[in-house]
Design brief:
The complex is a heterodimer of chains A (about 270) and B (about 300). With about 270 residues, chain A is mainly alpha-helical. Chain A contains twelve helices and no strands. Chain A has a single domain, classed as ABC transporter involved in vitamin B12 uptake, BtuC. Chain A is globular, with a radius of gyration of 19 Å. Classes of the chains: A mainly alpha (about 270), B mainly alpha (about 300).
Chain lengths: ~270, ~300
């Protein structure tokens, strides 16, 4: 499990989990679930396009991440947010089917891009992924306060002179970056699961932003590591374990919140 | 003139069996999706629509594995997911998106696993593509009757509950005051959504069925504020795009010899171009949409 070719996978998966955990918390607070699902899916045609013209996969992914962000924010000017997101999603995915079909790697390509492929990480891929993770996490730390303020109360943010549109665009850009790097590992369909599961669980457990953030990263790391180990031993796709574990952690979080609420009611009743 | 016609409609287009089946099922899927799509947009449930379609892919993958008719696989999983979302039932929009996302993630994980089994046990690598991106020309003709019955049932249901459904979609509080069972109309909407999604998942694929659901309806709602007119317009756009896409895909076998371009790509492109064109229609259309909720008339 820790043989030389797996070491790269462990390193990359760890970075992916940290970035997904950090961005995931804001996805939850801002209610950007649909965008978090759409960006990876509209980014994956980039990988197919890159293969088609023979450049590094990462460039293709980044280009399409930008297209996705621009699509969501531009179409969103004249349209409800969820509709704009759906329109962006369908258009870029449509392009994806074309690229995949033209590149003659249709079937295997589709499967790996949609559901992830952890075993194929080469040493050369680590450096760019590390760079992107540092940039994405750095941006979030730098923008932590305005992001948080704008996420919780847009009106208060506007009063303090924070432009809502600009914050939204910036956040989408960070999301796009995180997506582009995580995609080859976890797969387009489950990147968002890795953002959603840990963050929604963390938010159920605590109200404090910083504590939630560390919990979030912790759960994301556990999810990815467990998924990688299980996938290695069973040979089943990583995506299955990531999706399943994310749902499991959310279920446990809700159970815990329910128990806590029930106990509080019980204590109040006993006090009387 | 006849040259032009034979250039547009390549020889054999009208006598080709798979093309017939694709046009019938694709047309039916487009009409039903357009009808439901208008309500879905008004209700602000685009994400739920997309999620149902994605999750239904697990059913499609399972039916490949078991060797049964894919329609029942898609349908079963879509209905299951719709009831799961309804059961967890959270009223706050943000929390609802979250639950939808979690269900979606788990469902997609299951799809990944089932497709993996497909590949290992049947050594059919095509399962992933045909489940996720559709196999328009591979739809068996035997499905036509069942698909048409589903389509007719949905359209009939929409006609019967048109007013309560529209009112509860526009303003659920007002609808409740008028004595409409909002929970029931919501449930019926989700059910019809899963039926629509099933039909389009078979034709343009599970993750692209959002295109038929949201695209034509979004374009139509930019042109008119009347829900009834919007439904008819959306159906027209949807059917036009689907048939146009099938035609172009059939023709594309001659562009790149021996290798056709995917139908789904053409359909999605046509829908997107139509959507962009509807935006050119002056101020009225542009300002009507951001607040579609309050402006759509009964």
């Amino acid at each position: 499990m820790f043989s030389s070719f797996m070491v790269n996978s462990w390193i990359v998966a760890t970075m992916v989990a940290i970035v997904a955990g950090v961005t995931g918390l804001f996805v939850i607070i801002r209610g950007n679930t649909f965008a978090a699902h759409t960006l990876p899916l509209s980014t994956f045609p980039g990988a197919a396009a890159a293969k088609l013209i023979g450049v590094n996969e990462l460039w293709g992914l980044l280009t399409f991440a930008v297209l996705g962000v621009v699509g969501i924010s531009q179409l969103g000017r004249h349209q409800r947010n969820d509709v704009a997101t759906a329109l962006t999603l369908m258009t870029l995915l449509g392009l994806g089917t074309l690229f995949l079909s033209l590149s003659n790697e249709y079937s295997q390509g589709v499967y790996a891009l949609l559901f992830g492929q952890v075993l194929g990480v080469s040493r050369g891929e680590i450096a760019p992924v590390a760079l992107i993770s540092v940039v994405a996490v750095g941006l979030i730390i730098l923008l932590f306060r305005p992001l948080l303020l704008n996420s919780i109360s847009p009106d208060l943010g506007t009063a303090r002179g924070i432009s809502n549109r600009r914050v939204e665009l910036l956040f989408l850009a960070i999301l796009g970056l995180a997506t582009a790097m995580a995609l080859p590992v976890v797969g387009a369909l489950l990147v968002f699961s890795l953002m959603l599961g840990p963050a929604s669980t963390a938010r159920l457990l605590t109200d404090q932003p910083l504590r939630a953030l560390s919990l979030c990263v912790g759960i994301a790391l556990l999810t990815v590591w467990a998924a990688l180990a299980l996938s290695y031993t069973t040979n089943w796709p990583v995506g299955f374990f990531v999706g399943g574990l994310a749902a499991l952690s959310y279920g446990l979080g809700r159970g815990w919140a329910w128990v806590r609420a029930a106990r509080a009611i019980h204590e109040v009743a006993a006090g009387r | 003139m006849s040259h032009l016609i034979s250039a547009i409609f390549q020889p054999g287009f009208f006598s080709n069996g798979p093309v017939h089946t694709a046009m019938i099922i694709g047309g039916g899927a487009a009409v039903v999706s357009a009808c439901i799509g208008v309500f879905t947009i008004i209700r602000g449930q685009s994400f739920a629509g997309h999620a149902l379609a994605d999750v239904s892919s697990a059913g499609g993958a399972a039916s490949f594995l078991l060797g049964v008719n894919p329609m029942f696989g898609f349908l079963g999983m879509a209905v299951l997911a719709a009831s799961a979302m309804e059961l967890i039932g959270v009223s706050r929009a943000r929390e609802r998106d979250l639950v939808t996302g979690i269900v979606l993630g788990a469902g997609l994980g299951l799809t990944a696993l089932l497709l993996y089994f497909d590949v290992t046990s049947h050594s059919t690598t095509g399962a992933a593509t045909s489940v996720m991106f559709g196999s328009m020309f591979g739809v068996p003709a035997s499905i036509i009757p069942a698909a048409l019955i589903i389509a007719l049932a949905v359209i009939l249901l929409v006609i019967i509950i048109y007013r309560p459904l529209l009112l509860s979609s526009l303003d659920s509080t007002l609808a409740a005051v008028q004595g409409i069972n909002v929970r029931l109309t919501g449930l019926l909407h989700l059910l019809m959504l899963s039926l629509a999604v099933t039909l389009s998942a078979m034709t343009i694929g599970a993750i692209l069925s959002t295109a038929l659901l949201i695209g034509p309806a979004a374009a139509a709602l930019r042109l008119t504020k009347r829900a009834g007119t919007a439904i008819c317009l959306a159906a027209l756009i949807g059917v036009g795009a689907t048939w146009g896409g099938i035609l172009l895909a059939y023709d594309s076998y001659n562009w790149t010899p021996g290798h056709g371009w995917p139908v789904s790509f053409f359909i999605v492109s046509i829908i997107f171009v139509v959507y962009l064109l509807t935006g050119l229609r002056g101020q009225r259309g542009r300002f009507a949409i951001p607040a579609a909720n309050s402006l759509v008339r009964l």
